[in-house]
Amino acid sequence: MAEEREVSVLVGGRAGDGINNAGALVARLMSRLGYRIYLYFDYPSLIRGGHNFAVIRAATREVGTCREKVDFVLALNQETVTRHQGMVHDGTAFVFNADLVKSEGQGIPVKAILAAEQAPEIMGNSVMIGGFAKAAGIEWAQVEDVFRAALPKGTDLNLKVARRAYDQLAVVRKIPERGSPPLSLVTGNEAIGLGLIRGGLDAYVSYPMTPSSSLLHFLAGEKEKFGITVVHPENEIAVVLMGLGFAYAGKKAAVGTSGGGFCLMTEGLSLAGMAELPLVFVVSQRTGPSTGLPTYTGQSELQFVLHAGQGEFPRLIVAPGDAGEALAWSAIALDIAWQFQVPAFILPDKTLSEGTYSVDTAALPSREDGPAGPGRAASPSLPYRRYADMPDGVSPPAFPGTPGAVVKVNSYAHDEYGYTTEEGDMVSLMTEKRLRKQEALARAMNTFPQVNVLGKADAPVALLCWGSTKGVSAEVGDALGLRVVQPVVLEPFPTTQLRVALSGTTKLICVEENATGQLAAIASEYGIAVDEEIFRYDGRPFTYESLLAKVQEVIL
Amino acid sequence: MTGRNLITDVQNTWCPGCGNFTIQHTLKALLDGWEKEGRSLDNVVLVSGIGCHAKIADYLNINSFYSLHGRTIPVATGIKLANPDLTVICCCGDGDCYAEGLDHLVFAAKRNIDITVIVHDNRVYGLTTGQYTPTSPLGFKGKSTPSGTAELPLNPVELMLACGATFIARGYTKKMDQLKTLIREGVAHKGFSFIDVLQICATFFPAADYYTPRVYEPADHDPADFQKACLLAREWDYNSDARIALGVLYRKSMPGFGERVAVPNRTASEREQAVRDIIAARI
Question: How high is the mean pLDDT of chain A?
């Protein structure tokens, strides 16, 4: 273990024990010490009774994955000790609830401490966090700061019970403080929500489906602050069509789901393509097919979102690699959808959506001018033609309520006014108009840096990855001296930028969390051949060690 | 825009004698009237599904969203939530609204979203050339049920009462004056308005001889009386032989979905500040 530069903590307990919140507190404590954080939360698809755990990794570098070994185990149930023996090393420090767990290390009499302060059972996690802080040699003042920031209700009592555990335990493994100022901790889904708000979102419509639901919860919780309408309708079919209703009326909307819910949205997607209505789709991937593993990760929807919907029409697909990219690219996706009147996809996965990352807000691009408006033509030329045939295919938009404009959108093949047509010439004209939009969209996207180059930028061997495997690939690339190339935009496929990023490579290894190599297949369509493919499809994200071993196998 | 020609130049392809003409001209007369009252038609939006009824989007010269089969209501809901100043009217078919999109109808009534749903209920699929719909009578011989349907029809009026719709009416395309009143009142109603329009399909279900002697306007009906409305709804079950009540069958005042989910307007800088505050609170 590179103990000098990083530390990993496992927090485990029963479903319903609040493991995610306990993990978030541990993450925050370590973030305050100046570390960069990644938190992975592993839970089965049930409400109570199963085993949950969070792994919090704190490092001096940016991280987006976990290590296989942990330095601390914080056990709220016996399973945390028995199930994760493979994650323990000789120096791992155990802190456990002595009422429920038998283990080596330091036990905490949680019940007795709560009784002494007449505190409710729900504060048991605060006791455990107090004990962990002491074992890790974290100053009490830090604990107090973090509790005051994270637990606005019952703060004093939480601190009292935490303090009792803090006083009872000994320092066993001091986590050194780093000089760097602490960064904010944001989940991938929160980052997508914040990015959409910065892009000018007016409405979010979604039907709950893991791992997209926490985005719905976040935006519903903050809707008053943001001034956005949040609707949870009867099903995903209603979701997408409500979204298109908002778009027609001139309001920027996004919808969110996972693969199964997106199946129901595909008729609406195709309508967006035909009616030329802008809408952002957040499709957070989980393990498929079908219901699959609801709470585990996967990258098997790239080809699905790329080809979904009958007929041919342009679309944008972006796959951010971490929370920082999610924040930046979600705003861009909304902008571009409206600029070109096309559907745009944001394609995270469970690892990103529900993972917590350090986000450097100094790197947040300014949007001081405010988000780009929906492009309302001040006074459209009359009679208004919703589908006026323009050189770049993008017709000047107008919305119902515009004086004198009759705004007609249509799912049928239509003429420039939006009237249904079956005339072959008009059908061809409108098809070509939509294709020119595709070209204009590709040109506009080329003005963005769409492909990241990480690791050793001039190395001849390159890892090709997308989405949440960015972090783990970058680390492996750094360790082995490999180039790491991550296209963020996947449609229109950034062929030119990708070729530049790959120039001089002699071996290309594609890393994907699916079983067939979906990005590799797209790359090969554009003449970029992949030499080796590394897949993982058990629902778990690559750890640093698991990817390192697989890459070493193929480069030797 | 004033003085517009409300009927477009698009060639009309409804069959001669189709009940859709009645609904189209009823709407045209209402729109004319609104314009004369000084109300701008720029704020009126028509949403149609897919089917014979839906061609009305091409034939009326007002804002329109020609949507998908069964999907008028969620589109209309989005439009109304996006801009409450718009008057949003859905023209749906019975196959469209009671089969493919029934879930949306149920939920729109449950939410009391302020839109007006006009169902062109000809009790047959016309555009797909004659199959049974959810309101076709038992034994209806359509192309997909050549020996007659084996299921009873749905009673949409009773269904809407159960779903909490706050304005429920039934009209008939041979009673145009009454239909005009029903649609006018439905649009004026704050909340979800549902109008089932018994419509003649000249080609596949020319049922005028059945409807005309049976329809009546119940005297002294109080639309606020839910129990009476239920009795009227059950009098004719779209299957057995009975009198068919027309008119406003039920009406109730209740806050709408849009009012309940309204959020304050925020400026771009307020929103940016909120984003930065949330991020800052996560340190």
Answer: 95
* Among the partner residues B61, B104, B276, nearest to A238 by beta-carbon distance: B104
Predicted ipTM beyond 0.85: yes
- Cβ of B63 and A406 within 8 Å? yes
Q: Check: CB of residue A528 under 8 Å from CB of residue A549.
A: no
- What is the pLDDT confidence band of residue A369, given thresholds at 50, 70 and 90? very low
**All domains in chain A, ordered by first residue:** 6-168 (3.40.920.10), 186-363 (3.40.50.970), 451-555 (3.40.50.920)
List of chain B residues whose C-beta atoms are within 8 Å of the C-beta of residue A228: 263
Euclidean distance between CA atoms A420 and A427, whole angstroms: 10
- Nearest Cα neighbor of A410 from A384, A391, A386, A427 is A386
Report residue A46's pLDDT band, with 50, 70 and 90 as the boundaries: confident
Residue of B nearest to A239 (CA): B74
Count the alpha carbons within 13 Å of A119 in the hemisphere toward its beta carbon: 25
E-strand ranges in A60-163 read 70-75, 88-97, 106-108
CA torsion sign for B129, B131, B132, B133 is negative
Are B64 and B79 contacting, i.e. CB atoms less than 8 angstroms apart? no
| Average pLDDT over every residue of A250-274 | 98
Confidence of residue B4 (pLDDT cuts 50, 70, 90): confident
> Which helix (H) or strand (E) segment is A283 a member of?
strand A279-283
Give the pairing type, strands B167-172 and B247-251: antiparallel
CA distance A458 to A484: 10
- Average pLDDT (B20-34) is 97
pLDDT in tens, A107-117: 999 999 999 99
Q: How far is A194 from chain B (nearest CA, A)?
A: 6
Is there a contact between A283 and A257 (Cβ–Cβ < 8 Å)?
yes
The pTM for the full model equals 0.97
Tell me if A356 sits within 8 A of A214, measured CB to CB. no
The domains located in chain B, with CATH, are 19-280 (3.40.50.970)
**Is residue A403 within 8 angstroms of chain B, CB to CB?**
yes
Mind listing the pLDDT tens digit for each residue in A336-362?
Answer: 999 999 999 999 999 999 999 999 888
Query: For residue B194, what are its two tokens?
Result: 């549902």
Give kind and range of the element (H or E) at residue A9. Answer: strand A6-14
| pLDDT above 70: percentage of residues in chain A | 97
pLDDT tens profile B259-272: 999 999 999 999 99
Residues 338-377 of chain A whose Cβ lies under 8 A from any Cβ of chain B: 359, 361, 364, 367-368, 370-371
Question: What whole-number distance in Å separates Cα of residue A76 and Cα of residue A53?
Answer: 10
Q: Are A67 and A95 in contact (CB under 8 A)?
A: no
